[in-house]
Amino acid sequence: MADRVPVLRIGDALLVSIQIDLQDHIAVQLQEDLAERIVETGARGVVIDISALEIVDSFIGRMLSSIAGISKVLDAETVVVGMRPAVAITLVELGLYLEDVRTALTVERAFAIIADRSTGAAVLTKLDGAGHDVAPSDDGSP
Description:
- The chain is an alpha/beta fold and 142 residues long.
- Helices cover 39% and strands 18% of the residues.
- The protein has four helices and seven strands.
- The protein has helices at residues 24-41, 58-73, 85-93, 107-119, and strands at 7-10, 13-17, 45-49, 77-81, 102-104, 126-127, 133-134.
- A five-stranded mixed β-sheet has the order 1-2-3-4-5, sandwiched between helices. It has a two-stranded antiparallel ribbon with strand order 6-7.
- Strand 4, helix 3 and strand 5 (102-104) form a beta-alpha-beta unit.
- The radius of gyration is 16 Å and the shape is globular.
- The termini are far apart.
- Residues 121-126 and 135-141 have low confidence and may be disordered.
């Protein structure tokens, strides 16, 4: 159906790539579809790619937060990827900090976050002086 955002299962996670103008009724339908899919698949995470969205209003921001809250109650973590700088600035200006929503720069990082959660692995990231990830040494030393 044209008024639905596809929800794809990839391993233990669901992937939602929003490639259409996310009108309010479509966002509400997405929230319902995701809740149903989490329950029926037992998904441990939800990755929402919003890289195609140029504008996010307060309603859509609240819907992302609501989706994350619903997912959390259903034992799945939500990770939003592809947020444009203008969207991030708009959300903060609107006072929407999306507290239950994890973010990642890429879909690969989002799936890594979910995989780490699923396996119970702790992720420790060492940063260099400029704030960039530094690969751990092979001998396990910092």
